Amino acid sequence: MSVAIVTDSTAYLPGSVLDAHSIQVVPLHVIVGGTEFSEGVDITTAEVAAALRAFKPVSTSRPSPQSFLDAYEKAAAGGADGIVSVHISADMSSTIESAHLAAQQSPVPVTVVDSRSLGMAMGYAVLSAAELAEHGASLEDVAAQARSRAEASTVVFYVDTLEHLRRGGRIGSASAFLGSALAIKPILGLVDGHIRPLEKVRTSSRALARLEELAVSAASDAEKAGSLVDIAVHHLDSQSRAEDLAGRLRERVDRVGTAGEAGADQGEVQVVELGAVVGAHVGPGTIAVAVSPRPASSRPGT
């Protein structure tokens, strides 16, 4: 069976990886000042960051079912007998609803997977699914691979302000007000597909130090269990802070290296800029870390 992989633009996988594994991406949309754009197509992260800093109205919307159906039909025309479609948590976006609607009309079977995550935590799950599919795994096994790797991942992040999350309805108004009033810099995390406050610190430097500790702890737990780990440091308009954090993680986490240089016996640490959609909700200055244990094997039956 030939299984194709489809995901959405919030996976933030590099274009070279998408091309190498023939992964199709359906873009979400960003609306800036009343004009709609497709993420990764006709708007940049820098443009969204500038709009947010200028207090322009910025919102997001899901892809249409037709966009997914187009992707499924293209995969089928390319020889796929089945499709695994992996997407951003249903608790943060209704994207997956469009995928389910399109799956009902697809010319080949589609298994839609709610990653309960986003960013490279989802991206690594998509990549593992694609690698397993390339070795001839079944539709069910490929979907299970995506679910299990996404579920095993840890995502923690820091935002300069809670205001953008409040505007997008991702965190309550009371929490946002309290954070601003007390100058709190919260450490947030993804817990079963939801954004949850984890800890509160008083300065951005302490917040970044705590992110580092949480990432090292998650990576160490995975390595003790016998897994290699991949780590992505996400940022929005904060490249230097992200690079500094990635460098420290490379020094502190065993068996990881620079993106593209990881061997069979080590994972990687890479810096990945957040895209326009997630950036619209978290705001400039955000730093996030995704720690993703690798599955034991990418070959079916081993």
Automatic annotation (TrEMBL):
One Pfam assignment: DegV
Q: Which GO terms describe its molecular function?
A: lipid binding
Superkingdom of the organism of origin: Bacteria
UniProt keyword terms in alphabetical order: Lipid-binding
Q: Which InterPro entries match?
A: DegV, DegV_C, DegV_domain_contain
According to UniProt, the name of this protein is DegV family protein
Species in which this protein is naturally found:
Pedococcus bigeumensis
The major lineage groups are:
Bacteria, Bacillati, Actinomycetota, Actinomycetes, Micrococcales
